[in-house]
Structures
1.
Amino acid sequence: MSTPPIALQGAVPEQRKFSISRLIVYLLLVIFAVFFLVPIYVAIVTALKTTQQVATTSIWEPTLSPYFENFGKAFDVLGKGFGNSLLLAIPSVIISSMLGSMNGYVLSKWTFKGSNLLFTFMLFGMFIPYQSILIPLVQFLQTLNLYATIPGLILVHVIYGIPITTLIFRNYYQGVPKELVESGTVDGAGFFGIYRHIVFPISVPAFVVVLIWQFTAVWNEFLFAVTLNSNPSSQPVTVALAGLGASQAGTDYGLQMAGSLITALPTLLVYIFLGRYFIRGLLAGSVKG
Amino acid sequence: MSNAVTPQSSTRAASALSVGRTVRKPISRDRLTAIYMLLPSVIAIALFVYGFIAWNGWASLTNWKNLGAMPQVGPIRFPAGDFIGLENYGRLFSDSRFITDLENNAIFTVAFLAICTIVGLFLAIFLDQHVKAEVFFRNVFLFPMALSFVVTGTIWRWIFLDLHWITDKNLALIAVIIAAAWQMTGFTMAMFLAALRGIPDDLREAARMDGASEFGLYRHIILPLINPIMLSALIILGHISLKIFDLIYVMTSGSPSLGYATDMPSIYMFQLAFKDDLFARSAGISMIMLIFVAIVIVPYLWSNNRAEKEAAA
């Protein structure tokens, strides 16, 4: 390596090895990309077939005469659940983010003795298997007459959303320079004044992350949806999808695939347009600080 | 963490500015306001997490089954049944279905973690090679994260039914593992990629200057640096796999006709509580699930808490 001739000699095979390894990298990336896209391909191809075509053609074979009615039929069944999920997700997400913002503000800027330990205890609630609180939760909601209602599910999502929303806001606010908050105290602003005039206005990125993260979580959730809600008229879309297309006569896979695509659409759109924030939420939920 | 604001440092700074005495009073009143604002969340978590866990733990020590009148204090009902100690747990550990569930869950967890970590790591390393169309590839690997397990399960069930895996005693579990890994590999990839991007370029350059091969660079320099991220990823994925429910429910319902080939504790718990009305035994399963998750999560949270304390000191 010390003299130019040797370096030059080494450069040619180096260069070739380099490009072959790059080729392998691209090849593997393409193979994995194909694998990742296979289910979406199959779902779209199947959703465009009649039950007759599904039965007689290969799962991989696209149809030349697409049958769009599956989407209409699927939406007839899922529409109610789709609306319920929106009615459930929007208030949950708004309340969760407000609570999370306030908690994060307190736990980063107004810490007190033991507040870190308290925060750790709150965080534990984000990881527990919800099975371990499910039976008392059903009983509790029944006594409050909130069982099998959308407000009941909103309450549940808000409460079990507290740890993650608090975590995201707390980590975000810890990055806010202390001088900014101190300038508020010097100006005579109190707890709410500092929040309103200094902290809240710079919270937009954290709000976006939390709104997206919670919306995706609530929309996709199934365990609470299926156990806290025996009433078909207030079921979220995931529960409706789980029961879609299955009957004594056999399973209608075209209908199921169309339903899956419809159910996936809102979160996919959020992901496509706001993906950067989605990833940020993803990382915020797992890497502290 | 270097720019973390701690109360100690901010009050110290305030007194250093010699306005300490004038802001002291409003701060302590505001600090009380702060605690009041936090209180509703603290009470909610205390009741809905810790209170309910205690309630559930108590229920698991009784013989409570079947719907019927329950003792009630205010809005809180209590399990109807007599204390029978650890009998439900003894029963579960001699129940062949529950043992199968634990075995399935162990296999699922190991395979799911291995696939997500290894594939996720390689995808991240590939994407870190300044490849063209990086954004496209990244989005393709990540979009399944935006889907519900119910959607993932519905689509993959159809594919694996066609391949006759769902109806095969030996392949059904592999099918659900693949579906789960398909959904979550993007998560590890994103975490690793973020970690790789955090490694300064000069470090790589220095290693290359010293004659390290690309492989050696990753093996000896980069991997040790992203080890903590790998641990975080394993813990997050581990707690997901220990409580996996939706995906199995939708894909196979636990394969009861194949000797519970894909059954999980969560599925059994669901059936006992919501189909069979055997509440106490169901509570027992959920407590065992909680203990497994706690073994993984509590040391993680504890060390995070400690690390923050040290960073603040």
2.
Amino acid sequence: MSVDAATVKRVAHLARIKIDDDRSAVMAEELSKILGWVEMLGEVNTDGVEPLAAVIPNTLRWREDVVTDGGIQDKVLSNAPKAEYGFFAVPKVIE
Amino acid sequence: MTALTDLTLAAMRDGLRKKDFSAKELAEAHVKAVEAARVLNAFTVETPELALKAAEAADAALAKGEAKPLSGIPLGIKDLFATEGVQSAAASNILKGFKPPYESTVSGKLFADGAGMLGKLNMDEFAMGSSNETSAFGTVINPWRGKGNESLVPGGSSGGSSAAVAARLVAGATGTDTGGSIRQPAAFTGISGIKPTYGRCSRWGIVAFASSLDQAGPMARDVRDCAILLKSMCGFDPKDSTSLDLPVPDFEAALTGDMKGKRVGIPKEYTVDGIPAEIEALWKKGADMLRDAGAEIVDISLPHTKYALPTYYIIAPAEASSNLARYDGVRYGLRETPEGGSLIDMYEATRSAGFGAEVQRRILIGTYVLSAGYYDAYYLKAQKVRALIQRDFMQAFERCDVILAPTAPSAAFGIGANVDDPIAMYLNDVFCVPASLAGLPAMSVPGGLSNDGLPLGLQIIGKPLDEEGVLNAGYAIEQAAGFSARPEAWW
């Protein structure tokens, strides 16, 4: 699979990473190489094979539906690039 | 008298109990060693005050005869682990300055058992790399030197951990292994390291890379030291839904070196093109060592081996692209706000400035293979091949108890040697990735030296939950190999 610079731009936007035009061309070449390489999986017959998501069998556990944490607003905000009035602050999102 | 930093962790533990030296003396010797080795760039943060504080507590406990398993043992913690109040940046610009208000389960268990922390260890950014060259804190230098005094990489991603252990800066270190990040750097620096079965160590508080693969494990001078650390690191944690609720064995007690009645499998598919003759020779020698220790050597087949790396390079980036979505400049870490820009502009600028080239590459691959129209062809296909790779191992384990293989296809290489070709770099993990995909316990132990005098590792892969069998086979090799080479202190 060959990826062009426009596709890289589109994927980069999906991933919320700004990519300049000169870099998107380089990235297109690199991604094409890697995707070309992984395409060898097409050789493998996987008919009837269940996809593996959890490698070691384990069942999800239940727990009591109780509050186990909280009251740590200061700690939660302590690493925020910008915090105001006890909230995370971000650029305006509503016009 | 041997320098305190030259002792194994087990010897430190025993010496502390016999009052041969104090925990304070031990910590001070290590703090001095760390300061003297800054040129290796193994640490992202040094925390001598924490090491000395733990030593004080250890000396008090030792005096009262209440020593804990790791009382007074000074460790290094990989920067991927959240450590309370101490910068935990995953060696990325996007997390520089992040001081977690909480402690990861694994580091917390080590400290609860009495260990102290000398500092945070450098690594590849977000554990993505095999040479420690993608770190935002700079490349780590391998304490071993190449021909003509060439500077070598320490392996990766746990390259700060491997360098610090090999240079005797720490008694032991934590590592994490997603596709070889404990075993390959251990091999490159002549030390031991084990990745336990997926689920043995809690992932809580470890910066997530590829959640279905990530496992923590110890890196140390020898197999016994790994066994001691592993016991403290393992155990059920309700905060990690994939944590296994099982008792933790006494790994150290499993070390007998006796391989009688054990069958060791040699996978024929691990003979790959271009692998140096000296690595093939070492592999054969390793089989001889285990045979001499009483094991029976059997040929096995893992037919899907050659598909493991491409499978990994779909699954790991896919999971990474999802995990790393959280770094958005809102709650922690870096924020870049373009003048007059929107929230989306802030996200994009922050992530572009904060992530390094390799991390961006993997996020883009992951986003691509998960995007509409490609999900089935790439991600689902990879998950199916992953099932076949695991099936290969389960079938092989009907014929053998452990598998012996090389750890890496080469000795440590020069800094900059592979940075321009991502696929060449990925091939470093060709022998490590299959066991990761199958969630199996696997370790690397030093087996000998290359023609250039550099350490080479042998890898033992075990059945699920058979860390004891893996460690004991590693111990048998260690005893037979008598590996005592160490880098000369040039720093």
